[in-house]
Amino acid sequence: MNLTTDVLAGKRLSLARLLTHIENGTPEGRAALDELFPHTGRAHLIGITGAPGTGKSSLVNQLARFYRQPVNGSAPRKVAVVAVDPSSPFTGGAVLGDRIRMRDLAGDPGVFIRSMASRGALGGIAIATAGVVQAFDAAGYEVILIETVGAGQAEVDIARLAHTTLVVEAPGLGDDIQAIKAGILEIADILVVNKADRPGVENTERALKNMLQLAHPTRRVFHHHGQVMTVKAPPAPQADGKLWIPPVLRTVATEGEGIASLTEQIARHGAFLRETGDWNRRERVRLQNELDTLLQAALVARWRATLPNGRYGEILERLVARELSPRQAVEALLAASSSRNP
Amino acid sequence: MNLTTDVLAGKRLSLARLLTHIENGTPEGRAALDELFPHTGRAHLIGITGAPGTGKSSLVNQLARFYRQPVNGSAPRKVAVVAVDPSSPFTGGAVLGDRIRMRDLAGDPGVFIRSMASRGALGGIAIATAGVVQAFDAAGYEVILIETVGAGQAEVDIARLAHTTLVVEAPGLGDDIQAIKAGILEIADILVVNKADRPGVENTERALKNMLQLAHPTRRVFHHHGQVMTVKAPPAPQADGKLWIPPVLRTVATEGEGIASLTEQIARHGAFLRETGDWNRRERVRLQNELDTLLQAALVARWRATLPNGRYGEILERLVARELSPRQAVEALLAASSSRNP
After folding, report:
1. What is the structure's pLDDT at B229?
2. At CB < 8 A and 24+ separation, what contacts does B320-325 make?
3. Which site among A111, A241, B5, B317 is 20 to 30 Å from B99 CA-CA?
4. Cβ contact (<8 Å) for A88 and B183?
């Protein structure tokens, strides 16, 4: 009966229904998330990002398979895959391909795959993704793979959801692929050169190592989960002085090559985060980001309710007529609402 | 003396100084933009987007060169290039490559090139880009080429600044490049298959045409400048019933091939927008987007000022301890501030 209870009891259909509620931002979804929230915080969130053409989906597929194998007699872990496509605000069809590719996993009750497309709202995809991840976490999924298509700001925002972020590259993707790396490299905990059976793999690997060296001679791992504005500040010394140097690994995801080593590095990074206290620091920054985004949306909604009818339209017309600059229009709007509750 | 007057008089150094003010969000920058705003609205804004590796920068370079040639005895147009990299919130170094590649244009006083990286603020890059574009427009730059690196939501936001949006593809960029197209295609006014001397160009061209066909059998051009949420609604019939079918063009930017045809299509699209009234509709939606983004930032700032000291930190702690869900934390924060001015 109760959605929350059913999700906590591991009912798959209830979870699917909840995810739809969360994506659509319904009151039911919000209420369930409130109830589920105390049960979150157990999963290892793994972000997978990188340019198109690098084979991210195959890699995610292989990782999911790997985690479903029993290791050393322990039970296989429950795995959720969240495939997010922020570049597709319109159709929502873009991640269909991934879904199809993952069909071979779909029969496994220990794997849950969810594709998400942006609904266009400011911060909407990040908020919805955070909610979906919380639902999986509460439902007992121990490994949550968050895959993003593309490599823009939205991907960086989503990568911030993860404890461990993989940045995937591939040999021979052209010249200006170098350009995109500068930013994206800084969010990488682990660098993966996929399609490593292709010519040019040494070059790609060398370029990545050089860029890592150049970008962060004394880089600290939790930087990218801190305030973006303060990222350039020199890292504060840590009690135990431990540093995480992002390893560069080769994989051929279509053949399953290199996947075992990759999962070892992921486990090693998880252990590192817990040892150094970075795990909790990342959790805190992640929750604060979510809080700020939700807060912003709530403030706008509350403010709109105080605005006299038709006032917004009037001021917009004056802006379009270039009688007011955008900033002057904002001031006029703020004045229009504050005159009601001074 | 006065920055605005100097910019309007075409002084290049003053313009450069103004752009820095705008990027840094200084009061001087804001004041100047207010004064310059009535002088805007004359430029043709051309957005260029697409995945990394497609050769966007070379294409932009060639377009700029082309517009600098006198055509049919008319004077060459003043051209501004704004290269935006929203995927680089950290270093700001990612667009350096573009800058270097455009060095051969840099001696031309009729060309102004500006590289921008995200400063990390929510909507910050879009707002700063809007300001920079307004400054160029007021300063008499008739063609403004807005190039984005990457292909995520931020790029879509920036593409919305333009009157005419080019989406650039290239043959053989891998499988899941197909995935990214679904979303990005819908913002394309003109599709460019660059690097058309490479094998596989026919396949890429055919795939694009098929996707266009599938995605928008009766597509209307100004959709993507409308509210994203309503994009799926069937288009309202237009008085003259005119439709823009995005053409698919081949170029080899490094050789200058196909550039003349491309500029013809850009001119044809500009004329189409003016004939159908879509030019003004796009202007309106663009200004409204900018207004809403600025408004949101202003509301948050105003609200923060009303919050009792230390309250934010307290509530954040309860969130981190999982005593409050993110949404409950927002409610607690709103209650904390509204109790002051009920």
Report:
1. 27
2. B320/A283, B320/A284, B320/A287, B322/A37, B322/A38, B322/A40, B322/A41, B324/A37, B325/A33, B325/A34, B325/A37
3. B5
4. yes
CA of A306 vs chain B CAs: smallest distance (Å): 12
Instruction: Give the HSE-up count for residue B144: Cα atoms under 13 Å, Cβ half-sphere.
Output: 28
Which residues face A257 on adjacent strands?
A: A252
Q: What is the mean pLDDT of chain B?
A: 80
How does DSSP classify residue A156?
Answer: H
Q: What are phi and psi of B13, to 5 degrees?
A: -70, -35
**In angstroms, rounded to a whole number, what is the distance separating the alpha carbons of residues A275 and A268?**
10
- Take residue A270 and report the two structure tokens written for it: 């998880």
> Do residue B228 and residue A89 have CB atoms under 8 angstroms apart?
yes
C-alpha distances (whole Å) from A152 to each of A312, B84, B133, B158, B335 are 32, 11, 21, 12, 35
Q: Which amino acid is at A13?
A: L
The answer to whether the predicted template modeling score (pTM) of the entire model surpasses 0.90 is no
At A339 the pLDDT is 52
**A69 min Cα distance to partner chain B (Å):** 27
A40-278 CATH choice from 3.50.50.60, 2.30.130.40, 3.30.70.141, 3.40.50.300:
3.40.50.300
Q: Residue B47 and residue B55: Cα distance in Å, rounded?
A: 14
CA distance A76 to chain B (A): 28
Cβ contacts (< 8 Å) between A118 and chain B: which residues? Answer: 153
Q: What is the pLDDT of residue A23?
A: 87
**CB neighbour burial string for A186-220, b if at least 16 within 10 angstroms, e if fewer:** bbbbbbbbbbbeeeebeebbebbeebbeebbeebb
The Cα–Cα gap between B117 and A186 comes to 14
Q: Averaged in consecutive runs of 10 residues, what is the pLDDT profile of chain B (342 residues)?
A: 90 94 90 95 92 83 91 85 66 44 71 76 70 96 87 65 89 54 72 92 84 56 32 39 87 95 97 94 89 87 87 94 94 78 44
Let me know if A107 is exposed, middle or buried by CB neighbors in 10 A (0-12, 13-18, 19+): exposed
Contact B244, B224 (CB under 8 A): no
**Residue appearing with tokens 């198109």:** A52
What per-residue confidence (pLDDT) applies to B150? Answer: 59
Q: Left (φ > 0), alpha (ψ -120 to 50) or beta: where does B247 sit?
A: beta
Which of A332, A304, A313 lies closest to B34, judged by CA?
A332
ipTM (interface pTM) = 0.78
Write out the two tokens for A16: 């699917």
